Amino acid sequence: MAVTLPIYMDNHATTPVDPRVLEAMLPYFTGKFGNAASRNHSFGWSAEEAVENARQQVASLINATSKEIIFTSGATESDNLMIKGIAEMFREKGNHIITQSIEHKAVLDTCKNLEKHGFEVTYLPVQRDGRVSLEDLKAAIKPTTILITIMYANNEIGVINPIAEIGKMAKERGIFFAVDGVQAVGKIPVDVQRDNIDLLAISAHKIYGPKGVGALYVRRRNPRVQLSAIIDGGGHERGMRSGTLNVPGIVGLGQACEIAQKEMPEESLKLRGLRDRLKAGLEARLDEVYVNGSMEHRLPNNLNMSFAYVEGESLLMGINDVAVSSGSACTSATLEPSYVLKALGVGEDLAHTSIRFGLGRFNTQEEVDYVIEKMVQVVTKLRELSPLYEMAKEGIDISKMKWQTA
Ligand SMILES: *Cc1c(COP(=O)(O)O)cnc(C)c1O
């Protein structure tokens, strides 16, 4: 079977809307367009009913109850709300927050903002495999610690943290535990009870739902978590998030969660199979390739690999009919290596040659085979042009070479 180009393999950045999700959403743009807060007529009632149904679908996926789900504009807002909401509500109790260095910017920048407002934040390092160390975490806890916020799975390297262990540690000490669950929810089983999670951020567009809608799980029992709102007005979502609800978006998020819950066992097996085929195919035909982060504790759909002795930009250009992400971030003038790979201890050279493959529901084996073929071709060609690769092959240790300038 021929593949259609370009191939999309960047599903950590966003996912296409599943046609079944779109179908569920459509009536809520036109015929059922009511405002879920309108209490006086059937337009409002049917919108509210749809929202409550979606709340149930989201809750079910993470083993919560529907009253514990707050709808937001996406996970960036959910991350902001869970961190700032706790910080503001409990600042009398303590001003210390613990997070880790490879969180998403929605968490890191929120924490940085709080530092400007009198909070103290500990950014834990990660281990070489990309996971946070429980020892480090334990040592960082102080009497003033009110919140631990650690992501479930990382968006660049797909590495999964020991969330249940962290949740237990937080619970024993009466510290709130807030989790950015964006990359994990819908991909691997996430259970807020088992994991002792107090707050969990979810995004629709990472799980085949629409962009611009998300949810925040807020625990209601044992303990009942209270949050300060960051958006005021109207008192929607039990006062935690005012604003007219995005009914079609919320219906889409709910439908996406229901599909994910039903299909997760089968889908994760399929994705793991494709991912392992991609990895094996690349490793069989290319030397000097390195996986970044733990393979054992990793999302089934992620592969992050560095291809030594190629130039990152040329590699990306060479595979321009395959949509993937690289470990270089273009900031205005310079090429910065990914802060995530840096934190793992990956050297700058290898970080610049890294590729994140994010497999998704709609990828096929033919696409994977095409990507292997293309990567092998391009990497091989670029290495033929690389004097460094030549020298390495001849056994010259480049790191010990003395460079001369004329
Ligand atoms: C995409 C992503 C976010 C942001 O979600 P939006 O809904 O796009 O705001 C936050 N955290 C992680 C880990 C993500 O991958």
Features:
alpha/beta, Aspartate Aminotransferase, domain 1, 12 helices, globular, binds pyridoxal-5'-phosphate, 2 domains, seven-stranded mixed β-sheet, Aspartate Aminotransferase, domain 2, single chain
Protein described:
38% of the residues lie in helices and 15% in strands. It has 406 residues and is of the alpha/beta class. Helix 1 (19-25) packs antiparallel against helix 7 and helix 3 runs parallel beside helix 4 (105-115). The longest helix has 39 residues, at 247-285. 48% of the residues are buried. The model has no long low-confidence stretch (mean pLDDT 95). The protein binds pyridoxal-5'-phosphate. Belongs to the class-V pyridoxal-phosphate-dependent aminotransferase family. NifS/IscS subfamily. It is found in: Cytoplasm. Pathway: Cofactor biosynthesis; iron-sulfur cluster biosynthesis. Residues 7-371 form the Aminotransferase class V domain.
Name the overall outline.
globular
For the largest beta-sheet, the strand count, sense and barrel status come to:
7 strands, mixed
What spatial order of strands do you see in the largest sheet? Answer: 2-8-7-6-5-3-4
Q: Mean pLDDT score, rounded?
A: 95
Terminal Cα span: 55 Å
As residue ranges, the low-confidence spans are: none
The small-molecule ligands in this entry are: pyridoxal-5'-phosphate
- Structural class determined from secondary elements: alpha/beta
| Computed CA radius of gyration, to the nearest angstrom | 23 Å
Count of individual domains:
2
Modified residues (N6-(pyridoxal phosphate)lysine): 206
GO molecular function: 2 iron, 2 sulfur cluster binding; cysteine desulfurase activity; metal ion binding; pyridoxal phosphate binding
Function: Catalyzes the removal of elemental sulfur atoms from cysteine to produce alanine. Seems to participate in the biosynthesis of the nitrogenase metalloclusters by providing the inorganic sulfur required for the Fe-S core formation.
Binding site for pyridoxal 5'-phosphate: 75-76, 155, 183, 203-205, 244
